Amino acid sequence: MRLSRAEYKEIARWTEQLRPTRQCMQRLKDRFPHHSQSTLLSIFSLEYQKRTKRTISRHHVPDVMERYYRRYLNEAQVRPTAPVLLELANEVDLSPALMARVILDQFLKDTDGEMPPKAVLNSMLKEPSLIPDQTLANNVYQCTINDCCYGPLVDCIKHAVGQEHEVLLRDKLMERNLSFLDENQLRTKGYDKTPDIILEVPIAVEGHIIHWIESKASFGDDHSHRTYLNEQFWSYWNRFGPGLVIYWYGFIEELDCQRDRGILLKDGFPTDVVTLGHATQQEQTPESQKKDKE
Predict the structure, then answer these.
(1) What global pTM score does this model have?
(2) Tens-place pLDDT, residues 112-128
(3) Percent of the chain beyond pLDDT 90?
(4) Does the first or last residue of the chain, that is N or C, have fewer Cβ atoms within 10 Å of its Cβ?
(5) What are the start-end ranges of the E strands in the chain?
(6) What letters, b where the CB count within 10 A reaches 16 and e where it falls short, cover 66-90?
(7) How many other C-beta atoms lie within 10 A of the C-beta of residue 245?
């Protein structure tokens, strides 16, 4: 789905009032019913991560973290079955999963008297049943399953979705009998930083030659696309030539401005793929085709 920059900004402005919960995602879908749930979630995630980067430092002040922890202990004692951490996270506008990390970190410090190893903290966030306090374990679990932007569950979902779209891309290429090397094959050949697909025989899409394809299971906004250009796409272009980027959940249409320089954007696998052999056959005149047959 291609959106104008004005359309994107309208959605982005509306997300400012939302929290990263699944209930808020339904409100976003109700407000913009003509956009897919996946596109809206990707846009919200991008905007919420920007918001978090701007504000996270104020939540990591030692006095503030201690205050959050003491408030959690008091509230959990009075209401042991209530989603205390989730309510606190929404109140102070902090991701529930990040709030769970802060409180669990404080709990382990309070219990052991020292900074917990990162591996221990991460394992408990991934598997709350490892937390020795049952009430805290329940609260961490509630935060994890209700957060749609951060946390181990979101990380797993993002990884799975990314893999799913890479498989989809490979399937589309095989359906068209296009010869290619994927990222794993390229790494065995000694390449370190590569696109998802290198075409062994280039194709043409909308009149542009394509040597490589990169799959992004996300929405392409100004910030993320600029980052990808600088850290990935231009290096692919320098190494392998012009290529295609697929933002499966859409992008800001004004960003598709590098076609003449060799980077094409699409929101799905192109339907007008022209292979080298097909193009050569089309370019032949009837007379030359007749001679070839003779």
Answers:
(1) 0.88
(2) 888 889 999 999 999 99
(3) 84
(4) C
(5) 2-3, 180-182, 197-205, 208-216, 243-247, 251-252, 263-266, 273-275
(6) eebbeebbebbeeeeeebbbbbbbb
(7) 26
